[in-house]
Amino acid sequence: MMKEWNLGNWLFIDPDDIIENYSGSVWWTCSECRNSYAMSPKKKLYYQKRKKEPCPYCRGMRRKMHHFL
Q: Would you call 61 helix, strand, or coil by DSSP?
């Protein structure tokens, strides 16, 4: 999971202090689409254990900008 850890987290959170049950949101960078998204490590592990895509952009759950106009 550390290969998707967003470098902006280093300013506020030490990754050595995070355990798998941590429910606070941290930022991740998707290895496929390179977009950043916020998700708790607990929820990310939930998706990985069930072989689901954790990235909301790759899942198609993010709306396009033209929908907001």
A: coil
**Nearest-5° angle of CA 29, CA 44, CA 46?**
160
C-alpha span between 50 and 33 (Å, rounded): 20
Domain that holds residue 50: 2-68
The predicted-structure confidence for 11-40, as pLDDT tens digits, reads as follows 677 777 777 788 888 889 998 888 899 999
Rounded Cα distance between 14 and 45, Å, is 18
Q: Look up the pTM and report it.
A: 0.72
Does an H or E element contain 56, and which?
A: helix 56-59
Looking at the structure of the chain, the number of domains it has is: 1
